[in-house]
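Quarterly update from the structural biology core.
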Amino acid sequence: MEKKISNKKLTWILVVIFVLISLYPLFAFLGTQPLRTWDESRVAASSYEMTKTKNPIVVTYDYKPDHWSVKPPLAIWIQALSIKVFGANEVAVRLPSALAILLMGVVIILLTGVIKKPFLGFYAASVIICSRGFFIYHSGRSADYDALLCFFMIAYLLLFFIYTETKEKKYYILFFVSLIFATLTKGIQALMPLPFIPIYLIFRKQLLPILKDKTTYIGIGLFILFVGGYYIGRELSYGGYLKAVYENELGGRFMTVLENNSGGKCYYINNLKTNYFTYFFYILPLAFIFTLFVKDKQVKRLSIFSMSIAIMQYVFLLIAKTKLHWYLLPLMPLFALVIGSAFYVIHNWIINLKYKTSKIYILIIVAYIAVFSIPYKRIVKHIYRPKEDPLYQAYYSRSELMKSLLKGNIVVNDTINYINGDYDQSSMFYFYAMNHYDIHNQRKNIEDLKLGDLVQINEIETDEKIMERFEYEVLHFKIQSKIVRLTKLLETQNM
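Predicted structure, tokenized:
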């Protein structure tokens, strides 16, 4: 098959097929659900604030410098741009993540095409688009940092591998560019694979030429300039940032358990098996062992390169005291390359069978469908009819109600009051979005409420305090969140 079509043409055909396969899982119903999780909502709110502050250096939350989420701002910049183009809505803030996963698959196919193995990249990209981990919290359909991080990390790692295979300088330059972007996305986490780089260069007997190459030092210099420049610039803009980075990222997450996010030795394995890599979890070890015995040395090197980095990162995750399941995400493209390598070898074996070309085509298509149809169907089903815990749904009922206001399903003509303390990160973005679209709302203390006010009540404690002062009429209700109008001041308040 590959002999009859030029490698370049084949590579782009596979890119187009992958894009078509990926459109529904990544982009369908992207804005259906309100913002979920503490992090997604917080990042979205910070991105909106940046469109108002027009300060690209200092990330804010509630218009105050954010010293909790201390990641560099590349993801915030991209989301802010998306909000400018598409408006203050869920699609705008989630779109960069969905595009990042799509581009990750595209780049993998294009780069493996450089070494004339585009099918390897296509199979790896197919594993990615059929892996549940990229479609739950913090990834391809979420307004978080992690999808963008995965894209830039696998880009710089694969670019480095391609450079060691081809010696073409442009891939080494692009390696540094991608490394800078990855670090500006999520800081130190982007650097976790780097200790393996010199080890691999020693293995390939290429360390000395790299050390003699002036590009190495120019790249390091540019990295220090852009990454170091940002960290210093933010510290100078608003003091205390570097201390917060250490406390929350280096000394915090690595050395201590933050917010009770701990886990045992099997925490990450169990998440890979049950939530993230499910179907492919059992294929991975077999695929890796298989590739160790193949004749194609390039395939073998790629598999060893990918698995070694993944194992090293996994060890770092185990050592770190704070454990969060989405820390697994950067490992999954590496696992996908290992599985893709094994599938590529099987693909070539089928190609070399002494059958008619048409039968070879049919056999490859049937094999592909047999492997990927079930996990792909599960992804599609999850997107179309997401199952949600009732308690989880109730927690975000305030956002559901605010989303209904934005969509015009609920119409109010007066200013909606939100009680200070009676909203959280999940509703902060909607608070901004409603004002953005002239649905007026404001924050108030309970003591400042007056007759006739509209109030959105979310917490039971807040409801009880209001009922101590007022009688009210419920205008709109959703699960445990409601919009009420204050109709009567209780006599106890008149005394």
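Residues 274 and 281 are 9 Å apart (CA to CA).
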